[in-house]
Design brief:
Layout: H1 8-11, H2 38-43, E1 44-45, E2 54-55, E3 78-81, E4 84-87, H3 93-100, E5 104-107, E6 114-123, E7 126-135, E8 144-149, E9 155-157, E10 161-162, E11 168-169, H4 180-187, E12 192-194, E13 197-208, E14 211-224, E15 227-238
Length: 239
Amino acid sequence: MRTLLFSLASILCLSGSLWVQPKTTHGPDCSGSERWPAAFAQNVKQSNSHSHDLVWEPPEWNYPHELKASVPKEMFSTFGLSGYNIVFEETSMQSVQKHVGGKAGKKGDAGDALEWLCFYGADTAGRWVIWLESGEINGGSVGGFQWQRLSNGEVLDSRCHALAGGGVSLPWSLRLGAKKAEVIKNLGAPTSSDTERLIYLHEHKSRIRGEPFTISNIVVIDIRNEVVWAIRASKTSSS
């Protein structure tokens, strides 16, 4: 039976203060208005392969394989994007495009293939970008997302889509700009942590169509100056 795995090894990445490698960025959140700050008009540009700060592809994920799951319950498998409810491993990327918009990006092949949708927005604290991601083995469904702040020097590719309203809605009041202490209060003790990152990992056994699977749910919070800079999450089913 074909494995339904959005491989943790291929979707999760750990690096410096952000999980971002100089490849890309993403994240959504919007006010109810469809009118965007002037900064957006100045920071959405046509694709330019020579710009190191151009935001289009999602960052790579790196995951410390030695971590053992410690979170007793699944944290979340659904979230809202511009008012549209998305379920990990069930909602298709095409369905997201139909309801929310966006242009699909693709790279790699076979087990390394990745498809993504890039959206952006802003709140009172600044701009952000969110990527929805689907690995080849997800069969076109949403397997994870990365939502993070944009730095001043980062320029959005024109293929990234502005969210018209509703922004990003996560369980547990998770949001960019939340205080680190608030995250720990809501999610509890992390599986692993340092001054710049909180990692929460849950796993449990299940059966899908009679076959045994391991269900993994991971939430990674990047911290800057004691507040949330990025939120990365996924749910995977592996046999």
